C-alpha cells in the first residue's frame, strides 16, 4: 500500500532528510512503466464513473521545487482520462484583485465541482512557502495560515471533495541537472527562467518551509504524500497508484438507468 510508505503519520514531525528522493522501491523502469500503464487504464474508467455519478470530487494538489516535475506529472498521469472531466489550475503570483482578498479566495473558486477531478499545479501552499521564505507578509499572518488551510480543507472534505496532496521530492543535485538540460536543449529554453536561480539559493529555507507544511497540514482528511521524484517513472507510478487507490475507495457508481429501458423503441 502506498498509504504507509509515503504518507507520514498525521501529526508527526517530518524531516525530509529521512526521505530519499532517489528511492525506487524494488522497481526498474520497465516494470514501473508496465504497472503505470495498467493503472492509467483503471484511472480512465474510474474517472468516467466519477463523472457519470456526479456526487463526489477529487482534488489533486501538486507542490514541488522548480523542475520538480509538476508539469510532467500532469502530462503523464492524466493523458488517458477524458479531458472533459478534468480541470487543471496553475497558480501564479497573485494579481492585485486576488491580493485584495483573503488568500483562499482565488483557491476556493477553483475547487472541483462534484463529478470532476481538479488538479492544482501549485496551490494555497505557496502562501506558506514562497510567501514565508521571502517575507511577503508579516510572520503572524503566514503563521495563522496553517490553521486556515486545515480548516478550509476540512470544509472541502466534509463537502464531498477527496483531497490528495503530493510533494514531488527532488534533490538539489537533480534540480541542477534538470536546469542544465533546459539550458542545453533549445526546445526546453522556454522552461528556463533566470528567476528560478535565486529560489534555488534559498533551497534550505524552502526545505524548512516544506517540512512545516508536511508536518502541520498532513491530516486524515487531506493527506500529504512525499513522492520520491528524482526518477520520473517512479514518481509517475506512485502518483498514479495513489490516485487510483483513492478513487477505488470512493467507489463511484453509474447512476441508475431510467426504468423500462428494455421496452424503449427508437422511432424511425
Ligand atoms: P511557474 O509555476 O513556473 O509558472 O511559476 C509560478 C510562480 O508563481 C512561482 O514563482 C510561484 O512561487 C509564484 N506563486 C504562486 N503562488 C504564489 C503566491 N500565493 N504568492 C506569491 N507567489 C506565488
Ligand atoms: Mg517553473
Description:
- The chain has one domain: Rossmann fold, CATH 3.40.50.300.
- It starts with a helix and ends in an 18-residue tail after the last helix.
- The radius of gyration is 20 Å and the shape is globular.
- It is α/β, with parallel strands linked by helices and 268 residues long.
- Helix 2 runs parallel beside helix 11.
- The model has no long low-confidence stretch (mean pLDDT 97).
- The protein has eleven helices and five strands; from the N terminus they run ααβαβααβααβαααβα.
- Strands 2-3-1-4-5 form a five-stranded parallel β-sheet, with helices on both faces.
- The site of adenosine monophosphate has 9 residues, from helix 6.
How many strand segments?
Answer: 5
Structural class: alpha/beta
Q: CATH architecture, please?
A: 3-Layer(aba) Sandwich
- What portion of the residues fall into strands of 2 or more residues? 5-15%
Largest sheet: 5 strands, parallel
CATH superfamily: P-loop containing nucleotide triphosphate hydrolases
Whole-number mean pLDDT: 97
User: What fraction, in percent, of the residue positions are helical?
Assistant: 40-55%
Contiguous helical run count: 11
In this entry the ligands are:
adenosine monophosphate, magnesium ion
H/E order of the elements? Answer: HHEHEHHEHHEHHHEH
**CATH fold-level label:** Rossmann fold
Q: Using only CA atoms, what is the Rg?
A: 20 Å
From the N-terminal CA to the C-terminal CA, the straight-line distance is 53 Å
- State the strand order across the main sheet: 2-3-1-4-5
Q: Which spans have pLDDT < 50 for at least 5 consecutive residues?
A: none
Whole-number count of domains: 1
CATH level 1 name: Alpha Beta
Cα shape: globular
